[in-house]
Write a structure and sequence with these properties.
Number of strands: 9
Structural class: alpha+beta
Order of helices and strands: EHHEEHEEEEEE
Largest sheet: 6 strands, mixed
Shape: globular
């Protein structure tokens, strides 16, 4: 079983891109659009894994900080994933940084 995860760093290239995830979260929350199924970033098409509230937290962090780390595994993106020192928490598990591909 492949235990490797990927960490993708995304940085918006415009002011609008910085707030794009907030727009998606707002449209999803008020029912104007269905739950996002996938996110396409460059060559990566990632299936969204996580709750609406986790997506809101991600979108707010992205808007405030201006960059985000996406933690992915086998084409899936855990919106609630986080990095704390040398430990990555995602997909209901803890991973050491040696399991990451950059």
């Amino acid at each position: 079983m492949n235990e490797q995860i990927r960490m993708l760093c995304i940085q918006p290239d415009s002011f609008g891109a910085r707030f794009a995830f907030l727009g998606v979260a707002l449209r999803w929350s008020i029912g104007l659009s269905p739950r996002p199924q996938t996110l396409v970033i460059g060559p990566h098409e990632l299936e969204l894994v996580g709750s609406e509230s986790a997506f809101w937290r991600f979108a707010l962090r992205h808007a405030v900080m201006g960059e985000s780390l996406l933690i992915t595994r086998r084409g899936r993106w855990d919106v609630a994933g986080s990095v704390d020192g040398d430990v990555v928490r995602a997909f209901g598990r803890k991973f050491a940084l040696r399991h990451c591909l950059y």
